[in-house]
Amino acid sequence: MQPVNNPFRLVTDNPAVIKILSLKSELMLVLRDRIVNSKQNQTTIAELCQIQQPRVSALVNGHIDQFSLDELIRIATYLGIDVSIAITNQGQER
């Protein structure tokens, strides 16, 4: 058995889905760290991010399937985290 360099390859072989899951995972880890290290309770974080407290709990507990990438970017913005997406052209001309 070959080692898997990306755990999302165990779920799907669709490169677009793998990319989105990888981005969501990375962003959720950053958000979780910011929330946990803020020392604020989840209700306060929820109010700041304009979401419900159970959504903060789901985020902190890593429920990746419950969040879209755009929602995570919106939450990051409310928490003062600048998110940018790098676009690379892989040798294909338009």
CATH homologous superfamily classification? lambda repressor-like DNA-binding domains
Number of strands: 0
Q: How many alpha or pi helices? A: 4
Number of domains: 1
Global outline: globular
- Can you summarize the main beta sheet? none
Helix- and strand-based class? mainly alpha
CATH class: Mainly Alpha
Which stretches of 5+ consecutive residues score pLDDT under 50? Answer: none
Please state the CA-atom Rg, rounded to the nearest Å: 16 Å
CATH architectural name: Orthogonal Bundle
Q: What is the H/E order?
A: HHHH
Structure explained in plain terms:
The chain has 94 residues and is an all-alpha fold. The protein has a single domain, classed as 434 Repressor (Amino-terminal Domain). It contains 4 helices and no strands. The protein is globular, with a radius of gyration of 16 Å. The model has no long low-confidence stretch (mean pLDDT 89).
Task: Please sum up the structure shown.
The chain has 94 residues and is mainly alpha-helical.
Question: What is the strand and helix layout of this fold?
Answer:
Elements (H helix, E strand, L loop, with lengths): L14 H24 L3 H8 L3 H8 L8 H10 L16
Helix pairs in contact: 1-4, 2-3
List keywords for this structure.
4 helices; 94 residues; single chain; 434 Repressor (Amino-terminal Domain); mainly alpha; 0% strand
